[in-house]
Amino acid sequence: MATQANPEAVLPAQGIEAPRSGRIDPKYLRSRTSRSNFEMMAWVFMRVSGAALVVLIFVHLWVNLMVGDGIHQIDFSFVAGKWANPVWQFWDLTMLWLAMLHGTNGMRTIINDYAEKDSTRAWLKAILYLSAAVIIILGTMVIFTFEPCLTDEAGNLLEGVAPEFCHGV
Ligand code: HEM
After folding, report:
1. Which of 2, 15, 39, 117 has the fewest CB atoms below 10 angstroms from its CB?
2. Which residues share a beta bridge with 157?
3. How confident is the model at residue 47 (pLDDT cuts 50, 70, 90)?
4. Residue 42 Cβ contacting ligand 1 at under 6 Å
């Protein structure tokens, strides 16, 4: 439902008004009317993506830091080995997209809450969306175009860098 300025608003409100009380200080009203339920969907998305991120991040940390040699195993060839498996490609892709969309939407909320000038809000959100898009696109490209078997100019595998499975290729 659209949030609208209530002429009966008692300002300043005593404490913080309950959401949807209608008694919202007009300086916090960011858009006059809205027929879409975008904000409700964004609210649900934060809860659903938050729950998914707990699982995604916990498994990510467990596999990288607790299994095998733990932190000592993390190097180029460890990452290459993981991304040779489509399951981890998909895992990392989902983590990237969800964390970026969740974090960006969270920052959008903070900007809407705290930046009072229309132009400041517009600029901050433009920068936010642009940087999120760059990171999502670059990250996605890296996951799918990653080359694990690096070679020198003569075509020989780079020793100590390329993972074991490259030697059989
Ligand atoms: C580990 C799992 C995570 C859970 C369970 C989680 C959960 C949540 C929830 C429920 C909210 C909404 C809070 C509200 O509306 O009052 C939120 C807000 C937010 N989250 Fe997450 N989150 C997680 C990870 C992340 C990550 C990885 C990032 C950064 C990339 C992030 C950045 C934010 C930001 C910036 C906000 C807005 C804070 C605010 O409104 O004050 N969160 N998170």
Report:
1. 15
2. 151
3. very high
4. no
